[in-house]
Amino acid sequence: MHALDVDWDHPTDPRPGPRLDHVRAYVTTAGADGHLWHGVPTLLLTTVGRASGRTVRTPLIYGEDAGRFIVLAAAYGAPDHPRWYDNLTAHPEVRLQVGAASFKASARTATRAERETYWDMMTALWPPFEDDQAAARPREIPLVILERP
């Protein structure tokens, strides 16, 4: 699939419920309502479905370091990686909305050293990530680096 074939403007949003409410509030207010969620910063990650080729939008807690955005593929401690993570491993070109700003980014799984560097930052932002990792064992929760091209 070529980047020109992707419909970035009409992503699929989460199913009805709190995550969909979060995404809708974030989008309609340009992040004024939704960027901070339970006191932590969130972004909207849009990936390309690895099988469908359709775009999918997901709200995620993020950390930031030197212009790079860091997210965890925690999936609430599920035994499998979330679909959005599988999508970006197949198609690393993504779109982000961080507050009012929307832009292209490239996604990659952090190296072991990067994971060690950023894990504490992410669990300081959202301590339940530690519980998610304990529940996910033996799966190691991937840490993802998102960077502007």
UniProtKB/TrEMBL annotation:
Q: Which family does it belong to?
A: Belongs to the F420H(2)-dependent quinone reductase family.
- Give me the reactions it catalyses: oxidized coenzyme F420-(gamma-L-Glu)(n) + a quinol + H(+) = reduced coenzyme F420-(gamma-L-Glu)(n) + a quinone
Q: What sections of the protein cross the membrane? A: none
| Entries under Pfam families matching the protein | F420H2_quin_red (PF04075)
| Name under which the protein is recorded | Nitroreductase/quinone reductase family protein
Which species does the entry assign this protein to?
A: Streptomyces caledonius
PANTHER family in UniProt: DEAZAFLAVIN-DEPENDENT NITROREDUCTASE, F420H(2)-DEPENDENT QUINONE REDUCTASE RV1261C
